[in-house]
Amino acid sequence: MNVPTADPALEADAAVERKKKSKKPKYSRFTQQELPACKPLLTPTIVISTFALIGILFIPIGLASLSASENVVEIVYRYDTECIPQQSQDDKVAFIQSSATDKTCRTTLTVPKNMKAPVHIYYELYNFYQNHRRYVKNRNDKQLRSKEYELETTNCAPEATTVDGSPIVPCGLIAWSLFNDTYSFAIQNKAIEVNKKNIAWQSDKDEKFGSDVYPKNFQQGGLIGGAKLNESIPLSEQEDLIVWMRTAALPQFRKLYGRIETDLVANEQISVTIQNNYNTYSFEGEKKLVLSTTSWIGGKNDFLGVAYLTVGSLCLFLALAFIVLYLLKPRTLGDPSYLSWNRNPDRH
Amino acid sequence: MMKRFVYINDDSSQNLYCDNRISNRKYTILNFLPKNLWEQFRRFMNQYFLLIACLQLWSLITPVNPASTWGPLIIIFAVSATKEAWDDYNRYLSDKQANEKEVWVVKDGIRKHIKAQDIHVGNIVWLRENDEVPCDLVLIGTSEPQGICYVETAALDGETDLKTRVLPSSCIGLTPEQLHKIKGVIECPNPDKDIRRFDSNMRLFPPFIDNDLCPLTIDNTLLQSCYLRNTEWACGVAVYTGNETKLGMSRGVPEPKLTAVDAMIDKLTGAIFLFQIVVVIVLGFAGNIWKDTEARKQWYAQYPEDGPWYELLVIPLRFELLCSIMIPISLKVSLDLVKSIYAKFIDWDEEMYDHETMTAPHAANTAISEDLGQVEYILTDKTGTLTENKMSFRRCCINGTFYGNESGDALKDVELLNAVINNVPDVIRFLTIMTICNTVVPVRSMSGNILYKAQSQDEDALVNAAARLHMVLISKNGNSLEINFNGKLIHYEILDTLEFTSERKRMSVVVKDSEDGKILLLSKGADEAILPLSYAGQQIRPFVDAVDQYAQLGLRTLCLGWRELKDDEYKDWSQAFKEARSTLVNREWKLDEVCQRLEHDLEVIGVTAVEDQLQDGVPETIETLRKAGINFWMLTGDKQKTAIQIALLCNFISSEPRGQLLFINGKTEDEVLRSLERVLLTMKITSSEPKDLAFVVDGWALEIILKQYRSVFTELAILSRTAICCRVTPSQKAQLVELLKSCDYRTLAIGDGGNDVRMIQNADIGVGISGREGLQAARAADYSIGKFRFLKRLILVHGRYSYNRTAFLSQYSFYKSLLICFIQIFFSFFSGVSGTSLFNSISLMAYNVFYTSVPVLTVVLDKDLTEKTVMQNPQILFYCQAGRLLNPSTFAGWFGRSLYHALVVFLITVHAYADEKSEMEQLSMVALSGCIWLQAFVVTIEMNSFTIFHHLAIWGNLLCFYGLNLMISAIPSAGLYTIMFRLCRQPSYWITLFLITVVGMGPVLALKYFRYTYRSSAINILQQAERSRVATFSIRDLDSQLKSIEKDVGSLASRNKFKSSVYEPLITDSPTATRRAVGPSAFDFLQPAQSRDDQNAGLLEIVCMLTE
Question: Is the ipTM of this complex over 0.95?
Answer without folding.
Answer: no
